[in-house]
Design goal:
The chain is mainly β. The chain has one domain: PRC-barrel domain (SH3 type barrels). It is about 10% helix and about 35% strand. The protein is built from one helix and six strands. It has a six-stranded mixed β-sheet, covered by helices on one side.
């Protein structure tokens, strides 16, 4: 996970299709923790596996899957 040091709170997470998944709230072990006030979050934090990250730019974390697939894979628990 060479990207971990570059992932910061406030960065946007986008799918491979460019669609917005959410905003980084922090890291929880090997998981991205997304802010609970994001549009599609339903008021809950969501977590995604760091293995889905393909690139990190200054304000963006890009995933290897589409935004829709990422939202299907996210979890409300840091498992």
């Amino acid at each position: 996970m060479m990207f971990v040091e570059q992932i910061k709170e406030g960065q946007q997470v986008t799918g491979a299709d460019g669609g917005l998944v959410g905003t980084i709230d922090g890291l929880s072990g090997q998981l991205l923790k997304l802010k609970k006030n994001d549009t599609d979050s339903g008021g809950a934090h969501h977590y995604l596996d760091l293995g889905l990250v393909v690139a990190v730019e200054s304000s963006n974390v890009k995933l290897i899957v589409s935004a829709a697939e990422a939202k299907q894979r996210w979890s409300e628990a840091a498992e």
